[in-house]
Specification:
Layout (H helix, E strand, L loop, with lengths): L4 H8 L16 E7 L13 H8 L3 E3 L2 E2 L5 H10 L3 H4 L10 H7 L7 H7 L3 E7 L19 E6 L8 E6 L5 E4 L3 H23 L3 E6 L6 E3 L4 E4 L41 H34 L6 E7 L19 H4 L3 E4 L7 E3 L4 E2 L3 H8 L25 E6 L12 E2 L16 E7 L4 E7 L4 E5 L22 E2 L2 E2 H15 L5 H4 L1 H5 L8 H4 L5 H5 L31 H6 L13
Parallel strand pairs: 1-8, 1-11, 2-13, 3-14, 4-5, 4-8
Antiparallel strand pairs: 2-12, 5-6, 6-7, 9-10, 10-16, 11-12, 15-17, 17-18, 18-19, 20-21
Helix pairs in contact: 1-8, 2-8, 7-8
Length: 592
């Protein structure tokens, strides 16, 4: 199936003229394009010229947008609920801790964004991948609720680009041979888009459309053994990018290892593996070209129908991806920037064109509140995020994002793994003890990443001076070095604050996730790490419980994740604390 812009415009010429008239009072339409495993740090967006033309040049790019859990199913539940994974309790891609069955048993099939939008008067549509373990056997047990129209790709062939099965509007699954999966998803998305455009005209009823192609996810075959290799590309794109190589950044197959736990023990990649990995990424870029064409055709159809200026288009992915960085085989699930920093581009009414926002962070838990606000709907009390300031030229969000992960890290590609999948043992070569809690803090003045692993190893990167996360300030090799200054304070003092912030974030709910400093300092005098570093708080933070694990688990078990309660600062003890501190901090002037 070859979908192109000219064909789209030809098809649109036959639409009724009334469809092209837009009522000025119409609520906005919203389209969410959700790719699978798309990277930011290997510059995949630079290789999508139509996305550049129609979304990036005409909308706003958020370069500091993060997923909160670097794996598809938990991340997608974040997107559909506006809640963090420790609150949804969907923490994996398969049962018992994840997948579609877990989404259902946790009650989210009756309580998610599609339903909320539908209940508020929107027609809602979904084309493509929903979750792992949404299968030919359980697609109707129960049916996915919340969508006026749907076409879901189903396991066990979700990640097979040329041989896959779908269920259309809940009908009996049908297998498609010789059809390219991202093209098929695009075609279904266009059908739903046309249906939505007609409803806008006939009923003045807006639409919410999700298009979720599998590109650029690995092509996965589950039986008789599990194998994951590079994605397949449509024939028309197979010739592209012959000279592309993964950027040789400082973290690309470094001479010295980096990170903690199993990552610290990875051997350097040899030339054969590096050549394979470069081609692997070329295939990922080629697979994205179908998505690139889909975006352009969506814009063309909206424009021909007179609805482009009344439609928000949001482009993102579920999680990032690494290939060869930190000596890693292709994959995700890690705490590095490659895995958690993901694309976000938004175009729509009032959104600044050609703007790049690179200061304050936002996260996937912010997208459900954002979509609800754009639709004119009330925000829910159980949202763990807040709307992204899509219309503002300047960021106004918090400086932090909390990240988390449970279970295995699973390398992909022929040098990564193959083998029968078993939940207890994992695939062959899967890495256990990949459970961690993380914090990403970003401002114009400081940029940090802090993580505590279930092994109680810790990571801290000063990303102003170490953007590629090569020098773990808390690493074993640095123990003998003198205490150093970070943000003008000694390292231990800064880590005390980061630990306290993580203590709130690792179990937060609702507003506590948006304003964690306000939970510790309810009087409102601390709203950032910079505020918290005031010397008068040193003793208070020194006495806070510290984040620690007692065991590495494959799912969320709060009882093994250390202290959950934190101390709240009281002004009533302020004088007592000040008496224990020097009146002047000799380092204060170095960072304020």
């Amino acid at each position: 199936m070859h979908l192109n812009l000219a064909a789209a415009l030809t098809a649109l010429a036959g639409l009724p003229a009334a469809v092209q008239a837009v009522a000025a009072s119409s609520r906005p339409n919203i389209i969410l394009v959700l790719t699978d495993d798309q990277d930011t740090h290997m510059n995949s967006l630079d290789h999508m010229p139509l996305l550049q033309k129609y979304l990036i040049n005409e909308g706003t790019t958020f370069t500091k947008h993060y997923c909160t859990v670097a794996i598809c199913c938990p991340s997608r539940v974040n997107l559909w609920t506006g809640q963090l994974a420790h609150n949804t309790n969907v923490t994996d891609v398969i049962p018992p801790f994840g997948g579609y069955p877990k989404f259902v048993t946790e009650g989210y099939n009756d309580n998610h964004l599609g339903l909320w939008m539908q209940e508020s008067g929107y027609n809602t549509y979904y084309a493509g991948k929903l979750f792992n373990h949404h299968t030919v056997d359980n697609y109707n047990a129960p049916y996915v609720r919340g969508f006026t129209g749907s076409d879901f790709v189903l396991d066990p062939s979700t990640y097979q680009y040329w041989n896959f099965t779908t269920t259309h509007n809940g009908e009996k699954p049908k297998t498609f041979l010789g059809t390219y999966s991202p093209d098929f998803t695009a075609a279904r998305a266009f059908e739903f888009l046309d249906e939505g455009l007609h409803a806008v005209d006939k009923e003045d009823k807006p639409f919410f459309l999700i298009a979720a192609p599998i590109a650029p996810h690995a092509q996965v075959v589950l039986y008789p053994t599990m194998e994951a290799g590079p994605p397949a590309a449509a024939e028309r794109h197979q010739h592209l990018f012959p000279d592309y190589v993964i950027p040789r950044t400082p973290n690309f197959n470094p001479e010295e290892p980096s990170g903690v736990s199993w990552i610290l023990n990875q051997p350097r990649l040899n030339d054969t593996v590096i050549d394979y990995n470069d081609e692997y990424q070329r295939q990922r870029l080629r697979s994205l070209q179908s998505v690139d064409e889909m975006v352009a055709e969506m814009v063309a159809r909206l424009e021909a129908a007179g609805q482009l200026d009344n439609t928000y288009i949001i482009y993102t992915t579920d999680n990032g991806y690494h290939i060869s960085q930190h000596r890693l085989m292709p994959g995700k699930e890690c705490s590095f920037e490659t895995d958690i920093n993901v694309p976000l581009v938004i175009r729509g009414p009032g959104v600044p064109a050609g703007l790049v926002k690179d200061a304050v962070v936002s996260s996937h838990t912010d997208l459900a509140p954002t979509i609800m606000k754009l639709a004119g709907n009330a925000l829910r009390d159980d949202f763990d995020g807040q709307p992204v300031a899509v219309h503002a030229a300047v960021n106004s969000g918090p400086e932090h994002v909390g990240t988390e992960f449970w279970g295995y890290a699973i390398p992909e590609g022929k040098y990564g793994y193959s083998g029968k999948y078993g939940f207890i043992d994992g695939p062959a070569n899967a890495h256990p003890n990949n459970t961690y809690k993380g914090l990403r803090i970003e401002t114009a003045r400081y940029s940090l990443y802090y993580a505590v692993w279930c092994t109680n190893e810790r990571q801290l990167y000063n990303m102003k001076t170490d953007p590629y996360q090569m020098d773990n300030i808390l690493g074993e090799g640095r123990k003998s070095e003198p205490r150093e200054l970070l943000l003008g304070r000694d390292l231990e003092t800064v880590v005390d604050r980061l630990d306290a912030l993580m203590l709130v974030m690792k179990s937060c709910k609702g507003q506590a996730c948006v304003d964690p400093w306000g939970q510790i300092h309810p009087h409102g005098d601390v709203s950032s790490l910079a505020d918290a570093l005031a010397p008068r708080f040193d003793v208070f933070y020194k006495r806070q419980p510290k984040v620690a694990f007692t065991k590495c688990e494959l799912g969320y078990f709060p009882e093994v994740e250390g202290p959950m309660d934190y101390h709240v600062f009281s002004r009533g003890v302020l004088d007592q604390i000040r008496e224990q501190l020097p009146l002047v901090d000799p380092h204060w002037g170095q960072w304020t």
